[in-house]
Design goal:
Layout (H helix, E strand, L loop, with lengths): L1 E2 L15 H6 L18 E5 L5 E8 L4 H10 L14 H8 L3 H13 L3 E5 L5 E7 H8 L3 E6 L2 E6 L7 H4 L2 E5 L8 E2 L35 H7 L3 H5 L8 E6 L5 H10 L9 E5 L12 H14 L4 E6 L6 H12 L4 E4 L1 E4 L7 H16 L3 E4 L24 E2 L7 E7 L2 E5 L2 E5 L3 E2 L6 H8 L1 H8 L7 E7 L18 E4 L1 H4 L4 E5 L6 E4 L2 E4 L6 E5 L2 E6 L2 H17 L16 H11 L7 E2 L23 E2 L1 H9 L1
Parallel strand pairs: 1-14, 10-12, 10-13, 11-12, 13-15, 15-17, 17-25
Antiparallel strand pairs: 1-9, 2-6, 3-5, 3-8, 4-5, 6-7, 14-16, 17-20, 18-19, 21-24, 22-23, 26-27, 28-29
Helix pairs in contact: 2-12, 9-10, 10-16, 11-12, 13-14, 16-18
Length: 633
């Protein structure tokens, strides 16, 4: 999984801190929330050039919001006459977007302030516009400053933005005032990094193996299909034909790697199946940092549904890039399933209007029949501690966003039985269990010390836990194993992180009945992971929930092909699958013929597996032939 930077407002918990301290904590300023918390305090270099042009996204509040929420639920409810009666993006705009008159009023106001409106999204809820820093200061009451930190130069607002009275009544928020991008790799390879670099031996892979039956750590999509009972779907003619896979990503890539991967597996694909759409809402075009993430997303999803077309939406990892990337894909209304393997800790969105704007976008996807899937993270139960490592900061039970959104299918990770080779011997992991890096603890402690394990290699594992931003959805109600947020959860950091002494930086709500994640989990441990063809070379030992999200994308695309078109669903779309998935589990549990297989041992560094739902492996792993029956009947 890849971490990302998104625009946001300084969380309330930081309100007592100086701007410099907040920046040092990675909350770069109002509208420029960062996700990495470095140990070098930022330096305010003064006012940014007043003539510099930047791009922003203004979100409008939906009309008929109660009716929208009701429709989101009813189109996913088999008992409702609205079940799978999806609307188009034009229909969404007509029913739930702001009226053309209101949109015209907002556009006219922005133009009157000197801004250039570059895009009014088809949903009539998002307006993209450009303007100078001087215009931003005059209109939104905040100046943009230059900062440097840890060798990186970036810009951020110096104070919180204020929405002008002329448009405040119809606006939900604004994103894109900052431009700092901090992508961080969550698509793990087997070779360890840092002090253990070279310790773990990557499976000896020099080419993509053509057939199935490969050892764990050298898996392809064919091995995955065998493990999770996908092959009967292929046997009945399901390849994704007539469907379109959507990938939302924040880095460019080379299509040739994906075509070479599929060719090595002997898959018959359309040589022009991929269409790349470059989304350019922010200051700067999409970069290459994270191109391995985009590569694996395309290879995995397209390899599992070789008959599908593909649209890859590539946005910049800065400002409002992720929001605009999702909005573009959903407004186009051409993809049947959409996934992303990028995310950041949900608590970085305290008070951030981007959270609301993204949530509205996911509602739109739901009523248009587009399932949205996101990786749950690769930091186990401690999502934030990938950014603020122990022991400089305490551990904090946190989950990843956008997987935390209840309208998004959260893709979790497991570890399959494996024996990994190391310099000082082998480490056996004998169970199918939630992916949790703690099974390496004894080895690392014996040869490198407990301190190194805690400071560098904790946490690692399939993301999972309890959201403190989103309430428990109805599909998780009355479900054994679903949990409330834990008590006594505070992020305590020392002066090495804060630059201002020991501080309590976040206090999370205890006993909150929040959305639990993940929903389901597939193999994600690098030690039992996959082959990636990247920059023309094949390497084994790749893993992470980055693989699970696109795999679920491809597999739901197969199932979507098995849904007969109707007058109300002419594209034969699946829609948001979680309500039917959880209903199937409540009806069948883990009995014969159930789509779900229990994971009963192990943990994701905190939450324990059990023969019921749990925040380590969700409903468990999946029999996709049985899931096809459950979702299509």
């Amino acid at each position: 999984m890849r971490n990302m930077q998104l625009g946001g407002r300084v969380p309330q918990a930081f309100s007592a801190l100086s701007l410099a301290a907040a920046l040092a904590l990675g909350v770069a300023a109002p509208q420029a929330m960062a996700v990495v918390i470095p140990k070098v305090a930022p330096v305010d270099m003064g006012l940014a050039s007043p003539t510099q042009v930047r791009t922003l996204s203004l979100g409008l509040t939906p009309r008929n919001s109660d009716a929208l929420d009701a429709l989101v639920e009813s189109v996913a409810d088999p008992k409702s006459p609205n079940f799978r009666q999806f609307i188009t993006s034009a229909g969404f705009a007509a029913q739930f977007g702001q009226t053309p008159a209101v949109v015209a009023q907002v556009v006219a106001y922005l133009q009157s302030q000197g801004f250039t409106v570059t895009n009014v999204h088809a949903n009539n809820l998002l307006i993209t516009f450009k303007g100078t820093n001087a215009q931003i200061a005059a209109t939104f009451g905040t100046q943009i400053h230059n900062y440097t930190q840890a060798g990186a130069a970036f810009q951020a607002p110096a104070t919180a933005a204020v929405m002008p009275a002329q448009i405040a009544g119809v606006t939900a928020g604004i994103g894109g005032m900052g431009n700092r991008a901090r992508p961080m790799s969550y698509a793990h390879t087997a070779p360890m990094t840092g002090p253990l670099a070279g310790d773990t031996m990557t499976p000896a892979v020099t080419a993509v193996p053509a057939g199935a039956g490969n050892p764990v750590g050298a898996w392809t999509v064919k091995d995955l299909a065998a493990k999770y009972n996908v092959n009967p779907l292929y046997a009945k003619g399901l390849t994704g034909a007539g469907k379109t896979i959507g990938i939302a990503t924040l880095a460019t890539y080379s299509q040739s790697d994906a075509y070479a991967y599929w060719a090595a597996l002997g898959l018959s694909v359309d040589p022009a199946r991929i269409t790349d759409i470059v989304v350019d809402p922010a200051d700067g075009a999409p970069g290459t940092d994270g191109d391995d993430e985009t590569t694996l997303d395309v290879e995995q999803s397209g390899g599992l549904a070789p008959g599908a077309k593909m649209r890859v939406y590539i946005g910049p990892n800065a400002g409002n890039g992720f929001l605009e990337t999702f909005a573009t894909a959903i407004d186009e209304d051409q993809v049947d399933v959409l996934s992303a393997s990028w995310g950041s800790p949900e608590i970085f969105y305290d008070g951030d209007p981007t959270l609301v704007l993204m949530h509205n976008t996911f509602k739109q996807a739901a009523v248009q029949g587009i399932p949205v899937i996101a990786a749950s993270g690769d930091s186990g139960a401690y999502d934030i501690n990938r950014n603020v490592p122990y022991p400089d900061c305490s551990t904090l039970l946190t989950v990843d966003y956008p997987a935390a959104d209840p309208y998004v299918l959260a893709a979790g990770g497991t570890s399959l039985p494996n024996v990994s080779a190391h310099k000082h011997g082998t480490v056996a992991q004998p169970y199918e269990r939630p992916w949790g890096g703690d099974y390496l603890k004894d080895y690392i402690t014996q040869w490198y010390g407990l301190g190194l394990y805690y400071s560098t290699y904790l946490p690692e594992g399939g993301g999972g836990g309890v959201s403190v931003r989103f309430a428990r959805p109805s599909y998780q109600a009355s479900l054994t194993g679903v949990q409330n947020s834990a008590t006594a959860q505070s992020l305590l950091c020392d002066g090495a992180v804060t630059g201002a002494g020991y501080q309590d930086l976040w206090d999370l709500a205890p006993n909150y009945a929040g959305r639990n994640l993940p929903d389901v989990a597939l193999n994600a441990d690098p030690a039992s992971g996959y082959v990636l063809l990247y920059k023309g070379a094949a390497q084994g030992g790749w893993g992470g929930t980055s693989f699970v999200a696109p795999q679920l994308n491809g597999l739901l695309t197969l199932i979507s092909q098995d849904i007969a078109p109707t007058a109300g669903n002419p594209k034969g779309r699946m829609g948001r699958p979680m309500p039917k998935m959880y209903a199937a589990f409540k009806a069948q549990g883990y009995t014969a013929g159930s789509p779900f297989l229990p994971i009963t041992v192990g943990d994701n560094d905190y939450y324990k597996a059990a023969p019921n739902y749990n925040p380590a492996s969700g409903l468990g792993s999946v029999d996709f032939t049985a899931l096809d029956a459950a979702l299509t009947k």
